[in-house]
Amino acid sequence: MPPPGLTYYPDTRPGISRRRAGRGWSYRAPDGTTIDDREERRRIAALAVPPAYEKVWISPRADGHLQATGYDARARKQYRYHPGFREFQEAKKYDQLAAFGAALPRIRRRVAEDLRGEAGERDFAIAAVIALIDQAAIRVGHADYTVENRTYGATTLTRRHLRLGAGALRLKFKGKGGKPVDTVLKSRTLERVFGQLHDLPGRELISWIDDEGTPHAVHSGEVNARLSEIVESPGITAKTFRTWAGSEAALDAALSAERLTIRALSEAAAARLSNTPTIARNSYIHPAVIALAEEGGDLHRLTEDLPDTRGLRKTERALLRLIS
Prior knowledge:
Its EC number is 5.6.2.1. This protein is an alpha+beta fold. It is 45% helix and 15% strand. It folds into 3 domains: 17-88, DNA topoisomerase I domain (Viral Topoisomerase I), CATH 3.30.66.10; 103-231, Alpha-Beta Complex (Topoisomerase I, Chain A, domain 3), CATH 3.90.15; 238-323, Topoisomerase I, Chain A, domain 4 (Orthogonal Bundle). The chain is built from 13 helices and 10 strands. The strands form 4 sheets. The protein has a 3-stranded antiparallel β-sheet with strand order 3-4-5. Strands 6-7-8 form a 3-stranded antiparallel β-sheet, with helices on one face. The protein has a two-stranded antiparallel sheet with strand order 1-2. The model has no long low-confidence stretch (mean pLDDT 92).
């Protein structure tokens, strides 16, 4: 449900439609009348729905949580949400981060246990995906994005995207939005895991084999279901790893910075996530970390007498203290 001040109004309810009118648009209210009100037309124009979108639906309510939908040139449904609803959703995401941090040692223990199984088992493959997301901070991946855009994530990577070396792995591929990802991981465990996976049939980097010997890719839904099973919370998904990683990288930069700035924190998170500093700042750094640069904070307190929590790095323990 939306926050106070906004109304839940989905695109299954009557909305405003648009039609070409010369070089501009004519907008029709749900009752079929033409919208001439200047303020209402200004609100609609501010939504910036691209001219190429088809089957455009626009909310007749300025306080609707969903303001517009339409289909792009690839027939993909696109959404325009009320700014207040986006902020509400972002806050909910960060509210779950402390619970994720507290559960992370449990997640890592379960992953380590499953990776002691046999390559080819479904649990082994799902654990390999989670381990890769955890250590490389990459997206989980979706087959549709790979087909449409030739972009990849943990579940859709192929063997050509990985190079194995002595105690290290190099991942090189095109991520979401065409952003190049080139990262090196130093992990004996992952070297062993991907060495075993490489011996399986199929082109996917990570797969499992059924009783008939057919290889299967892991899907994002399987990864999220496993995480929900481990932490007993449906709100924690593969995406949460990136928010955690971005926040940890930003805090690590704050703890070592001579001059604390939001730009430095954003650049550190962006480097970790293979993203832009703007996106990292807006979507992947916990507000409490940003507040250290905006308002100042006792950084010494964050690292003083930290509990020796197995399964969490020092900066992760400091982050958990900060946001709890």
